[in-house]
Amino acid sequence: MGAGAPRQVMEPVLRQLDTSLVGVPAAYIEEEIEEVAAAEQVVTPWEVSAPDGVIDYDKLVDQFGCQRIDAAIVDRIAHLTLCPAHRFLRRGIFFAHRDLNRILDLYEAGEKFYLYTGRGPSSESLHLGHLIPFMFTKYLQDAFKVPLVIQLTDDEKFLWKNLTIAKCKRLARENAKDIIACGFDVERTFIFTDLNYVGGAFYENMLEVAKRVTYNNLRGILGITPEDHIGKVSFPPVQAAPSFPSSFPHLFPGNEQLRCLIPCAIDQDPYFRMTRDVAPKIGFQKPSLIESRFFPALQGESTKMSASDPNSAIYVTDSPKQIKAKVNKYAFSGGQASVELHRKIGANLDVDVPIKYLNFFLEDDDELDYIKKEYKEGRMLTGEVKQRLIAVLSELVARHQRARAQVTEEMVDAFMAVRPLPNMFG
Q1: SS3 (DSSP) at 303
Q2: Minimum mean pLDDT range among 39-48, 142-151, 273-282, 345-354
Q3: Cα(first)–Cα(last) distance of the chain, in Å?
Q4: Which residues contact 98 (CB under 8 A, 6 or more apart)?
Q5: CA angle at residue 70 from 66 to 76, to 5 degrees?
Q6: Secondary-structure breakdown of the chain: helix, strand, coil percentages, each rounded to the nearest 5
Q7: Which carries the bigger pLDDT value, residue 11 or residue 134?
């Protein structure tokens, strides 16, 4: 495992080992650690794994020290914004947070905040899992009427992937078009790439963070090892800096205490635990987080969506024919082996991917509940559920493709222009 194993892995391992190992050969102890660690889930910004392929989110919340989003918070958001809560909130897809209530308290008192989210541009097109944070962030921007900064970490992908800088920069612009197609308001949104924007006040904040985070901190929080290249050590301050309003002097001049809310998947939490620890040391407010579950691969939660396996995911460039073929052939079913058995005992909704995808993308709560009930009790067959999913995804992807076709290079330039946003809180 090595000395750089994440703290969330090592601590449970050490607790499970016999404490009376004095005199036991080191090789044996290492072997015991490896065996126990294999039974532990690992969630970092670069690795997500679990012994049975299913993430235990309750355990993850306890390990990370974040809080659950309960019905009271969902109701409060709907009340404050005068908008129905997004289905991602209603259905527990965005399920955890850090200091979200503090943001809501300030908003209720008339104070403002800004949103920050991002994307690591490593592929030509996005899959549906990539769209989740942007769909939700769009809802937050519209509901709270607040500004948004979107970081495209082309530098990170150069460091982590076998890509040239030129390709990373090109992919960033292509991914920006898909992000813009989600419907963000150009009068409230600033999109930037690290390779183009980092410098000045942003770089000053990076330095402030870097000076206060030790190598041991990174080992414990992010799982950095001595074998990792130094780019992995230098990058975390880059992702931390957008949490601080002074990193954007053209947007928030003289407003260094403006709060930041970050919608992201929960694997990004370690970056922002580090950020929240540093923030008060350099005179800033701690950013708040609202965190989502992972979006499963077509083959099930035990399989990771991969750019090298186009059949593991639905892409925003897929045709209706491709969507139909992928869902019918690859979407893991919780239905039974025969119609007779299925009619008798019904489907296992806990493992059924079409149901999981409908949970993300079917807007109508009543229809979703009906499908779940009928399918679970065996009155609806797998083929029927898949047909409904194919229709939902085909409509979603076609709508995205129409919007994407309208995004020009000039529009990308407009979103990326370093300029004030006078109507960003309007």
Answers
A1: coil
A2: 39-48
A3: 52
A4: 66, 67, 269, 272, 276, 286, 287, 288, 289, 291
A5: 110
A6: 55, 10, 35
A7: 134
57/266 Cα distance (integer angstroms): 9
All residues at 6 or more sequence positions from 119 whose CB lies less than 8 Å from its CB, including other chains: 130, 134, 150, 151, 152, 153, 175, 179
Comparing CA positions, the residue from 48, 47, 139 lying closest to residue 90 is: 139
Q: Is residue 27 predicted with pLDDT exceeding 90? A: no
Plot region of 177 (φ>0 → left; ψ -120 to 50 → alpha; else → beta): alpha
Q: Residue 40: what pLDDT?
A: 79
**Per-residue DSSP letter, 40:** S
Best CA proximity match to 113, nearest among 77, 144, 137, 89: 144
Say yes or no to pLDDT of 363 above 60: yes
Q: Contact at 8 Å (CB) between 382 and 335?
A: yes
In the prediction, which pLDDT does 3 show?
Answer: 35
**pLDDT tens-place string over residues 63-88:** 999 999 999 999 999 999 999 999 99
Contact, 425 vs 189, CB < 8 A? no
Mean pLDDT computed over 164-193: 97
Enter the pTM of the model: 0.89
Helix (H) or strand (E) holding 33: helix 26-37
Q: Is residue 242 within 8 Å of residue 116, measured between CB atoms? A: yes
- CA angle, 309 as apex, 308 and 312 as ends, to 5°? 140
Are the C-beta atoms of 307 and 123 separated by less than 8 Å?
yes
User: Nearest to residue 263, comparing CAs of 44, 89, 125?
Assistant: 89
Residue 274 has pLDDT above 80, yes or no: yes
> Both tokens of residue 264?
């992201």
